[in-house]
Write a structure and sequence with these properties.
The protein is an all-alpha fold and 274 residues long. The chain has helices spanning 3-16, 23-34, 41-61, 63-69, 88-104, 106-110, 115-138, 152-167, 173-183, 188-214, 223-246, 253-272. The protein contains twelve helices and no strands. One of its GO terms (molecular function) is undecaprenyl-diphosphatase activity.
Amino acid sequence: MDIITAIILAIVEGITEFIPVSSTGHMILTTKLLGFNEQDNLMKTFEIVIQLGAILAIAIVYRTRIIDLLGLGKQRSDGLAPRSRLNLIHIILGIAPALAVAFFARDFIKGLFSANTVLWALVAGGILMIVAEQVNKRRARNTAQELDDLSYGQALAIGLYQIISVLWPGFSRSGSTISGGMLSGVSYKASADFSFIIAIPIMCAASGYELLDSYKEFTSDTIGIFLAGFVISFIVAYVVVLLFMRMIQRIRLTHFAIYRFLLAAAFWLFVMRS
């Protein structure tokens, strides 16, 4: 791997990690285009490193909310710590189903990683996103307009939808969770906020576990490329998340679904059939 390849992969990771287009799918397709074996140990380790850069970006964007969730916020004028209605129970309910499935089905899931699997997942995930948006649009009113309105049942429902992305590489974690939230009566923005927040613990757990098998790839020859990938992924992911949340009312799930359909069609026509 050279520095140009590292930069390309880091940019792809930063752009796609938190928007509903599937970063895993994009990484599999990109490595195939670049002629790399996605299962190569060096490549797998590099992907973990750039994913950690993206995680750091989202943690900084939501740092105030995370501090409040941990009970470390500044004291209020009445001497009490700030308490949001969103709490750690919501987070646990949102991540526990996917973590349990990932733990027990890890080897099975790894066997599903392929370009063909990703192409079908891009299409299926896009259909779910369109359905979720239409259902949400026709609903008279969402029961959770804001993040702090989220119920425990809705948090668990989002966690259950997240299982789809764990079992089907390319489906998109954010796509499944945002769609699951909207189907459960949560607004688009609140679903996106919750999706991004629960991404932090679940991605840290997944990346940390994978690093146990890959830490030997950190050598004097690779550390520079890993560091460059981490920094670039962090910067790109930070900018993308800020732009996405600022433009969320103008960029609908259907727009992302159409992009997924076009990507799957183009890749099948020009790469898979060549």
